[in-house]
Amino acid sequence: MKSLSTIILFLFFIFPLFSNPFKSDISLVVIDAGHGGKDPGAVSGDIEEKDIVLNVSKYLFDALKDKVNCVLTRDRDEYLSLQERCDFANSQDFDVNGFPIFISIHVNAASSNLASGFEIYIKDDQKRLALLSSKTSNRLISIYAPYNNTIVNSYINSVNSHLASLVSSSISKTFPQYKNRGVKEGDLWVLNQTFMPSLLIEIGFITNEDDREKLTNINWQKKMADAIASAILNY
C-alpha cells in the first residue's frame, strides 16, 4: 500500500510536466480598449488615443463575436484603472474545455515624429504570474490548479509567443507597407496581472503624420481589427 501511495504521489507531481492546459481552442477573448474617460492616453491636437482604440476594439469584437465568446473591458468612453481591467478579465466565465486570452489595444507615441509602425508586447518570460492568488476566478483555478505554477507560466509564455507571432504576421500581411517593429517583452501591468495568455498591441504612432492618418481612418481601423481577429481565429 505504501508503494502504491508513493507511485500516485509521484504521478501527481510529474503529470503537469507532460500535459498542457492550452492544447485546446481559445474559448474567450477579453478585448481591452486602453485608457478612457479622464485618461485620454496619447494625444495629438484634438485626436486622442482613447477614441481610436475604442473604435478598433469594437470592430474586433464585431469580427469575433459570431465565432468565439468575447467581451469588452469598456464599450464607452469611461475610465477604468489598470487593475480594474485585470480583475474584470480574471473574473470572466468561459468554457473550461478551452482557455481565455486578453488583448489590449493601444496607440503609441514618441518624442520623435519619425517613429512609426506597430509592435506587440508580451510579458517577460521570467515574470511569474501568481496564477492561484486570491484574485483568481474559480474557472481559472479549475484549469490551473492541477499544475505546477512554473510549468503553467511556461505554457502561457509559449502561447503568448505563438499568438503574438500570428498577430504580427497577420497585420503585416494586411498592411505590407506598414512598419513591423516586432514582438517585444514588457513589464506592463495588464500583462502581469491578467492570469491568462495576454498581448498588448500598439497599432501605430499618433505622433507620426502618416500613422495618424491611418489611425483616424475608419476603414483602416476595421482592417486592423480584422487582421487581429484573423490571427486569433487561426490560433
Question: How would you characterize the overall build of this protein?
Answer:
- The protein has 235 residues and is α/β, with parallel strands linked by helices.
- Helices cover 42% and strands 20% of the residues.
- It has helices at residues 2-14, 49-64, 82-90, 138-144, 149-174, 189-192, 209-215, 218-233, and strands at residues 26-33, 43-44, 47-48, 70-72, 99-108, 118-123, 180-186, 198-205.
- The strands form 2 sheets. Strands 4-1-5-8-6-7 form a 6-stranded mixed beta sheet.
- The chain is globular.
- The N and C termini lie far apart (45 Å).
Please state the structural category: alpha/beta
Query: Describe the biggest sheet?
Result: 6 strands, mixed
Q: N-to-C terminal Cα separation, in Å?
A: 45 Å
Radius of gyration: 19 Å
Q: Give the integer mean of the pLDDT values.
A: 91
Give the strand order, joined by hyphens, for the main sheet.
4-1-5-8-6-7
Order of helices and strands: HEEEHEHEEHHEHEHH
How much strand content do the residues show? Answer: 15-25%
Low-pLDDT stretches are 1-18
Helix proportion range: 40-55%
- Give the beta-strand count: 8
